[in-house]
Amino acid sequence: MFFRKNSKAFDLTDTLNGCLKGKQTAQRALYEHYFSFAKSICLRYAASQEQAEEMVNDGFLKVLEKLPLYDPTRAFEAWFRTVVIRTSIDYYRRNQLQGTRITLEDAPEPEYEDNLLENMAAEEILTLVQKLPPAYRAVFSLFVVDGYTHAEIAELLGINEGTSRSNLAKARTKLQAWVSTSHPAYMK
To answer: What predicted TM-score, i.e. pTM, was given to this entire model?
Structure first.
């Protein structure tokens, strides 16, 4: 048969052992198996598909570099996700942080409608999140999607906790404004 599927199933343990030995076939298998997962994470922090792919590649390099530190008694996907998120934040710091730091400590919390985003498709939401300024996008993704606290975000991004809160509020306000103008039916 010419169109036979590859009968070799992905074996995480064998693949990780091969990666630890520096085998390129194992590294390629890991990349191909986890590429979509990594890209879905990076898209939340990137301004474009190209930027997300750069983050993915940086993330895989970091995963391979840090693989000897991975504890096999823990879930690989959780460890992998953490490495990719931190790599995305490092990319953000290197390429986006200049000139976007906001020092407003105690901005009043604007009113926004939390249920607006519930009625939108994930792709629409991702498109809107990618339009946010880099500082807002990073805080929004870390807080809303990845579940980090403002203290953790402040430490990761090298900002004050109040700045994290302010950036989240401003991100939500911008998203709500964009949703209300592009989808007026979602407004009450």
So the answer is: 0.67
